[in-house]
């Protein structure tokens, strides 16, 4: 190799390293995308597991299921113990909703998954309305705002 060939080889090495950097960045982008998909899947599974656990309670406890069904119309007539059961049970359910909400706003759930979860909670929003003034302080301000808008929308549909 002659001294005059050295700048040529340096240029070739520079081009190869630039190409390697581009491929490295593409690989990092791919891995970030995959990681995002995994986080979405993990968060979705955690919410799904929480919902199945909560639903199992309703399935196996006839008295609690009865309270849940009667709650929106009869909450004020419940005994103190029944009100406590109902309030805590609904708080668990709303807590799962907040978990989905926070997952979406934290970038752990994609828009499609969040929309699906949010829609799945809406048919039972009347369960929360009756105790929302008593339980809302458990939840973040952002989620309280979300619930307020969902509650308002549910009343407008009626």
Describe this protein's structure.
The protein is mostly helical and 158 residues long. The protein has one domain. The protein is built from seven helices and no strands. Helix 1 crosses helix 2, helix 1 runs antiparallel to helix 3 and helix 2 packs across helix 3. The radius of gyration is 26 Å and the shape is rod-shaped. The mean pLDDT is 87.
**Count of individual helical segments:** 7
Number of strands: 0
The helical percent reads over 70%
Give me the Rg, rounded. 26 Å
Distance from N terminus to C terminus (CA atoms, Å) equals 86 Å
Q: pLDDT average, as an integer?
A: 87
Q: Structural class per helix/strand content?
A: mainly alpha
Overall tally of domains: 1
Unreliable stretches covering 5 or more consecutive residues: none
Strand content: under 5%
Q: Give the H and E element order.
A: HHHHHHH
Main sheet, how many strands, which sense, barrel? Answer: none
State the shape: rod-shaped
């Amino acid at each position: 190799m002659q001294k005059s060939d050295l700048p040529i080889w340096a240029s070739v090495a520079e081009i190869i390293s630039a190409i390697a950097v581009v491929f490295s960045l593409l690989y990092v982008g791919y891995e970030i995308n995959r990681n995002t998909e995994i986080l979405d899947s993990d968060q979705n599974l955690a919410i799904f597991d929480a919902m199945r656990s909560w639903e199992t309670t309703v399935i196996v406890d006839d008295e609690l299921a009865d309270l849940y069904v009667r709650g929106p119309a009869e909450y004020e007539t419940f005994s103190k113990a029944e009100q406590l059961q109902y309030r805590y049970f609904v708080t668990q359910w709303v807590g799962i909703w907040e978990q989905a909400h926070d997952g979406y706003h934290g970038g752990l759930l994609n828009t499609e998954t969040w929309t699906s979860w949010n829609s799945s909670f809406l048919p039972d929003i009347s369960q929360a309305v009756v105790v929302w003034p008593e339980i809302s302080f458990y939840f973040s301000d952002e989620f309280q705002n979300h619930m307020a808008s969902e509650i308002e929308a549910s009343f407008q549909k009626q």
